[in-house]
Every structure is written in structure tokens, then in C-alpha cells.
Design goal:
There is one protein chain. This protein is an alpha/beta fold. The protein contains twelve helices and eight strands. An eight-stranded parallel beta sheet has the order 1-5-4-3-2-6-7-8. α2 packs parallel to α9 and α9 packs across α10.
């Protein structure tokens, strides 16, 4: 059976001890995604690779516990990568599945995945959310209304100061979060919310670069909220530059970070100007690339709407 930790005593004390336990384990990543895999196999394939990437980085996985869909794919990726790394299967994997007793009963207790995961039980879904959010940063993968609920809850909690600010990554596989990103920008532009510095990555290569930056440049998020928010905004802005430099030079991210820091600290005025222009250009190029992708998707959406309107008009004429 999976290892269990019962919930008892004062909730604040529990959450405090859980935070200390997590910090002992190094950088933890909370991944939120669907319990279904979607119609396109790319979603499961890429999130399985996300799990493998977590192990490659030396991170640990926290998730809401599911052995199916996107979440099952992430966990299997972690397990397979851990097996390859350790050459041993008779051990627990670096995964914490946080759930309630009611949800745990829905799963097959004999599932091999559940036997190796450290399962932690919360009394309520609200407590489950709080425990998951003790991770150092969050990755949102494709999913359904449960994933959207998690994202909305986290955004509100951060906006209202109930949750410590931390980096949020949107794994935009196949442009999955296109409409959501447009909506979030819209409500911020209209004054209904503060801008949220989502770190958007479109593929496994970009995800790896973002992970490397979080690991080497930003580390664990133990600074005050304003500093973390500023760092997240900076990473959003600079990420395209690091992606581009990694593609062009093949250098490790830590070496590119050192190059950037050296120019900013000791470079001439001309060198600093060139660097900042290169960062700005890379950011704008990435935004333009995403804009063309969104326009293409919008064009397809418009085509579908036009087709549906034509069908509705034809049906109306028959009445």
C-alpha cells in the first residue's frame, strides 16, 4: 500500500511542518493538469516528458494524485526517469500525491504507481490546495475545469496576499492556453486584475530552459513577494533570449547566465546596450511568433463559427 500520513492536530502547525519537510527535499514542483488525456496524443506525450524533465533537473513532484490522463502521464514520466537514473525499482519515487480519503477510494490501490508514491491525506479540498501550493513553483499543463479551478484559485490567492508569490509556468502544448492567456490579458487591461507574470513555454526545449533558469538563477522562492514577483516578470521577459542563445550556441544555461551577469556588471556601455537590445529583440520576436500562431487559431475558430452560422440559418429557413 501507499505510504500514508494522517491529518491531525492544529492545521497551522501541520502546514508549517509540511513546509519544513518539503524544504528538506530540495526544489518541489507542483504540476496541475487533467485527469483525462485529451483527444490529441501530443498532450500525454509532452507531459510524460515533463515528468522526465523534473527528474533530470533534480526536482521533486507534488500533484493532486491521479493515475490517469495528464497527471498519470507526468507521474509515469517521473517514475521511468527515476528508474533509469537509480537502476532500482524497489523504492519510493520522488513524488508526493496529496488528496482526500474520498478521492483516494476512487483509485485502484493495487496500481503500481500508487504503491510507490508518498500519499498525503488532507481533510478537505481546500486544505489539499494549500498543501500543494507549498511547492516552490507551479506548472499548469492542459486539463479541464478542475485545472482551471486550480489556476483561478491560485491567482486569486496570490492577488489577495493569501499565498506567497511564486513562479507559475503555463505549458502551452499545441497552443492549449491561447484563449485563456488572451482572456487574462483582457481582464488585466480593463482593470479587473493585476497582470500575472505567467512563464509561458510552448515545447519541451523551452520548458527545459525555463527549469534551468529557475534552478540556477532564481532558486527556491524564499524572498519577499515583491522580489519574487519582480523576478518572475524578469524571467518572462528574458526567457526568449536564453532560449535563443541556447539554440544558437549550445551553451549550458548557467554559462549564459554568467555571460549576462558579467556584461551587466563589468561590460562597457556599448556592450550593455547590445545585450539589452538583444534581449528586447528576442522577446518581441517570440511575441510576434505567438501572435501569428494565435491569428492562425483565430482564423480556424472563425471558420468553424461561420460554418455553424450557415447551418443554423439553413435550419431556420426550414421552420
Amino acid at each position: 500500500m501507499a505510504k500514508r500520513k494522517s491529518v491531525c492536530g492544529d492545521e497551522k502547525q501541520l502546514l508549517s511542518s509540511f513546509m519544513k519537510e518539503n524544504k528538506k527535499d530540495g526544489i518541489r514542483v507542483f504540476v496541475a493538469g487533467g485527469s483525462r488525456g485529451g483527444h490529441n496524443p501530443i498532450y500525454v506525450r509532452e507531459t510524460y516528458n515533463l515528468g522526465k524533465q523534473i527528474v533530470k533537473m533534480g526536482f521533486k513532484l507534488d500533484f493532486g494524485l491521479s493515475n490517469s490522463g495528464i497527471m498519470g502521464a507526468v507521474a509515469r514520466g517521473v517514475m521511468d526517469a527515476w528508474n533509469e537514473k537509480q537502476k532500482c525499482t524497489d523504492q519510493e519515487f520522488p513524488i508526493q500525491g496529496i488528496t482526500t480519503e474520498e478521492y483516494f477510494k476512487l483509485y485502484d490501490s493495487e496500481d503500481v504507481m500508487l504503491k510507490h508514491i508518498n500519499v498525503i491525506f488532507a481533510k478537505t479540498l481546500e486544505e489539499r490546495k494549500q498543501r500543494l501550493l507549498d511547492a516552490d513553483f507551479v506548472v499548469f499543463a492542459p486539463g479541464g475545469v478542475g485545472t482551471l479551478d486550480e489556476l483561478a484559485y491560485d491567482c486569486v490567492a496570490m492577488q489577495d496576499g493569501l499565498l506567497e508569490m511564486k513562479p507559475f509556468i503555463l505549458y502551452n502544448i499545441g497552443g492549449f492556453f491561447h484563449h485563456l492567456l488572451e482572456f487574462l490579458k483582457s481582464i488585466a487591461n480593463k482593470g479587473f486584475a493585476d497582470p500575472i507574470p505567467f512563464i509561458v513555454v510552448d515545447n519541451e526545449f523551452e520548458l527545459e530552459v525555463a527549469f534551468e533558469l529557475l534552478k540556477s538563477k532564481y532558486g527556491k522562492c524564499e524572498e519577499d513577494n515583491k522580489k519574487v514577483y519582480a523576478n518572475a516578470r524578469q524571467l518572462v521577459y528574458e526567457l526568449p533570449y536564453f532560449i535563443k542563445k541556447r539554440q544558437e550556441t549550445g551553451k549550458d544555461i548557467i554559462d549564459i547566465v554568467r555571460d549576462v551577469c558579467a556584461v551587466r556588471a563589468f561590460g562597457s556601455d556599448d556592450e550593455k546596450t547590445v545585450l539589452e537590445n538583444d534581449i528586447e529583440t528576442a522577446y518581441l520576436e517570440k511575441e510576434i511568433e505567438r501572435m501569428y500562431d494565435r491569428l492562425a487559431k483565430t482564423g480556424r475558430d472563425t471558420s468553424v463559427v461561420s460554418y455553424k452560422l450557415s447551418r443554423l440559418k439553413r435550419r431556420k429557413k426550414k421552420i
